[in-house]
Amino acid sequence: MTAPLIGITTFRSLSRDNYPLLSATEAYIQSIINASGCPLMIPLGLSDENLIDLVSRLDGILFTGGGDVHPRRYASQPHPLVNSVDEDRDRVEIDLLHAALPQQIPIFGICRGLQVINVAMGGSLYEDLLAQGGASIKHDYFPGEARDYLAHTVQVASGSRLRQILGSDKIEVNSLHHQGIRTLAPGLCATAWASDGVIEAIEMPDYPFGLAVQWHPEWLQAHLSMRFLFQEFIQAAIVHSQSR
Question: What is the pTM of this model?
Answer without folding.
Answer: 0.97
